[in-house]
Design a protein that fits this description.
It is built from 12 helices and 19 strands. The protein is α/β, with parallel strands linked by helices and 432 residues long. The two termini are 24 Å apart.
């Protein structure tokens, strides 16, 4: 049942960067496309702007409950809306962990109270993220939160037997396990930098790409064995791309995401020991970055996900080895992808919509998001100014945290407006 909302006429938008049309939104759905008669409607001038389906983030850390000093569901929802998102998946590594139906429903309810994006909780795979005993997967799936994505993100489900059981369990209701691929024996607890010449020169504990790749290889074989779905979170190496390409050629039900920072930033940024650039998995060399870009363009990697990871200053501002892992990403993701992939000609706006909206929504099972720009579809919409050149200022962020790796960088394109069920959450780049 749709809610009654004021009609909005998006006038002169370029739909996916292809054809120009007016779009009339009435009661939360797209009512007409073309040259509608919209007397009395609120007009949003979209001349020169590109209209996309609302963005969907598969991988967001909102920190609530437990670390409201770094982010809350409300402030994270604000950041998401400003970034053009209409739905985000909130990761389970909170305190307490989202490993029960009650915890999942609490996250769902806080998201609805914020009212800026649809916040869908991700359930933990194992109790307390300990990797030993399965969490209440079935109860979370049957709860009001209807959890479909499960992840111990921040920790790898490193026990193959536990991972197999999780895949068998989620298969029954069409769920998916999102794996933080990191073999704990190959990437030790102190590892904080890509293993290579630079890590040796800086004296930082190295983290080899193979620590990711062996888990990805194991998990695609487990997915084939169980007939279930596995999703690879934040793919970061050329070796992972090779495994994914092979697995998809075999018809194995594997999907993968890449972060904006792994598409642009490289490990040489660590030369100054700036903890802003400490992230999990670590920044990789240029050859890995190029492999990830190619895999995103050709569909081997399905989606872009932010891994938005806010941290309070007292957790981030330490010596590099002691600082927390993670970067902000929600407000800048579209600009990064537009700069790297669209401006370079490797992807068009329709491709960007596929990797930042359509495929993420499909992977997450969000039936009302990532929909075509067509009459009768839910009006989850994002208007982008493709000609904008934005210099990122961390102090202007609506997130509570400031660990922004894009500070001072110029990015192409900017979100002009975001609509959730036909209601503007952002207009002219600002919260409505």
């Amino acid at each position: 049942m749709t809610e009654k909302t004021d009609p909005i006429l998006i006038k002169g938008a370029s739909l996916l960067g292809e054809r120009t049309a007016d779009v009339l939104v009435v009661d939360g759905v797209v009512a007409e496309i073309g040259t509608p008669d919209a007397a009395g409607a609120r007009v949003v001038d979209a001349d020169g702007l590109v209209l996309l389906p609302g963005l969907v983030d598969l991988h967001t850390h909102l920190r609530e409950p437990g670390r409201e000093d770094a982010e809350t569901i409300l402030t994270g929802s604000r950041a998401a809306a400003v970034g053009g998102y209409t739905a985000v998946l909130a990761m389970a590594n909170t305190n307490p962990v989202t490993d029960t139906a009650e915890a999942a429903e609490r996250v769902l309810d806080l998201g609805r109270q914020a009212g800026l994006v649809d916040v869908q909780p991700v359930g933990a795979v194992t109790k307390g993220l300990a990797g030993e005993e399965l969490a209440e997967i079935g109860l979370m799936a049957r709860s009001r939160a209807a959890v479909r994505v499960f992840s111990d993100d921040g920790r790898c489900v490193h026990n193959a037997r536990v991972m197999r059981r999780a895949l068998e369990y989620v298969k029954a209701f069409g769920g998916v396990v999102s794996q933080h691929a990191q073999d704990p024996d190959l990437a030790g607890p102190a590892s904080c930098c890509h293993e290579g010449e630079l890590s040796g020169r800086l004296g930082l504990p190295g983290w080899p790409g193979v620590a990711e790749e062996v888990i990805v290889a194991r998990d695609v074989m487990l997915a084939r064995h169980t007939g279930s779905r596995v999703h690879v979170a934040h793919a970061s190496t050329a070796g992972t791309v090779e495994v994914l390409r092979w697995a998809k050629a075999q018809g194995i039900a594997v999907t993968a995401e890449v972060t904006p920072h792994h598409l642009l930033l490289t490990t040489d940024l660590l030369a100054g020991y700036d903890p802003t650039f400490k992230v999990n998995p670590p920044l990789r060399p240029a050859e890995d970055v190029e492999a990830l870009r190619g895999a995103l363009a050709d569909g081997t990697i399905d989606a872009v996900a932010t891994d938005h990871a806010p941290h309070a200053r007292h957790d981030k501002e330490h010596a590099f080895v002691d600082a927390a892992f993670g970067m902000l990403g929600l407000e800048t993701a579209l600009g990064v992808v537009a700069t790297v992939m669209v401006e370079s000609g490797r992807m068009g706006w329709g491709d960007l919509a596929r990797v930042m909206s359509t495929r993420p929504a499909q992977i997450a099972g969000l039936a009302d998001h990532g929909r075509p720009l067509a009459v009768g579809e839910p009006a989850h919409l994002t208007l982008v100014d493709p000609a904008a050149a934005v210099v990122v200022d961390r102090d202007s962020s609506v997130s509570l945290s400031r660990n922004n790796p894009w500070h001072g960088r110029s990015l192409s394109a900017a979100v002009h407006a975001t609509l959730l069920r036909g209601v503007p959450t952002v207009l002219e780049g600002k919260l409505a």
